[in-house]
Amino acid sequence: MKVIDIINTAVQNKITRFAFELLPPLKGETMNSIFDTIDKLIEFSPSHINVTFHREDIKIIERENGIIERHITRRRPGTIGISSAIAARYGVEVVPHLICGGQNRFETEDALIEMNFLGLHNILALRGDSAKGENHFLPREDGYAHAAELVGQICDMNHGKYIDGEINNCHATDFCIGVAGYPEKHFESPDAQTDIRFLKTKVDAGAHYIVTQMFFDNNKFFKFVEDCRSAGINVPIIPGLKPFSSLRQLEVLPNIFHVELPEDLVNAARKCKSDEDVKTVGVEWAIAQCNELKKAGIPVIHFYTMGRPDSMVRICRELF
Questions:
Q1: Mean pLDDT lowest for which of 28-37, 69-78, 219-228, 264-273?
Q2: Is the pTM of this model over 0.90?
Q3: What angle separates helix 105-117 from helix 147-158, to the nearest 10 degrees?
Q4: Contact, 298 vs 17, CB < 8 A?
Q5: Is the C-alpha dihedral spanning 239, 240, 246, 252 positive or negative?
Q6: What is the torsion angle, in degrees rounded to the nearest 10, for the CA atoms of residue 82, residue 87, residue 88 and residue 90?
Q7: Euclidean distance between CA atoms 47 and 237, whole angstroms
Q8: Residue 263 pLDDT > 90, yes or no?
Q9: In the chain, fewer beta carbons within 10 Å around the N or the C end?
Q10: Where does the chain show beta strands of DSSP type E?
Q11: Cβ–Cβ contacts within 10 Å for residue 249, how many?
Q12: For residue range 9-34, what is the model confidence (pLDDT) as tens digits?
């Protein structure tokens, strides 16, 4: 089932479901951690599961003779294979991520063909982050600088149009495409209005729905939705939440994800004597967010679990 159909069905039935996101294991590890996380959450009937895609790293090796070698490596490979394994094992819809970063359009086409063969018909299309050491995002030769271009290629394949225009009678794929939105704007955008315009290009290119970056203040999400509707963006918008779980995240989340933590949440976390107490604060905060979002009729809430399901289990027992 496509994510857009899951969303529409939830709207029709006036219910709220949840989805969550997983990271591929580090190279050399097994999928046990993936399965352990899903095993703890599958009883609550997630609407779908996202699997992130991670771009290449550069590994620098200095040989004894002084020669410096640079190797391209991937620390978390296997997004497509993991997605297929999850779908086969649990019978749940899976959304592999696909990024522009580190890929050219020919590699992208091959990945899409592979997903199609495996029966994976939902994709979250993202630009991705800059490579380490880059001051700004640089696309690969024959790659894409913006997610809208990636969305365009996926839509072309949905119409039977492949890169090699000489191939006749091409099989048309049937991908449902999600894209990212930023209630507090993407950190590279000069202002919120510019960010909304870029988001609209992704929707105009053919995206079916939007899932947001994490936020901790629902008012920012509701304002974001209002601004999107005013700009002519009318596809469903799925809110993204992350259960706050440690004092360290007071610095990590704003610095890495460019999100603002509400003063009440920060003060409550700082009063805690342990990270276990902080986790409880985070769970209670997320539950309060979810209750307000459910009351507003949000059909699906997306959770960034980072492979740590304990907080999610507590939230799901309360809400789903």
A1: 69-78
A2: yes
A3: 50
A4: no
A5: negative
A6: 110
A7: 15
A8: yes
A9: N
A10: 17-22, 49-51, 57-62, 68-73, 94-99, 122-126, 176-181, 209-214, 237-241, 300-304
A11: 20
A12: 999 999 999 999 999 998 889 999 99
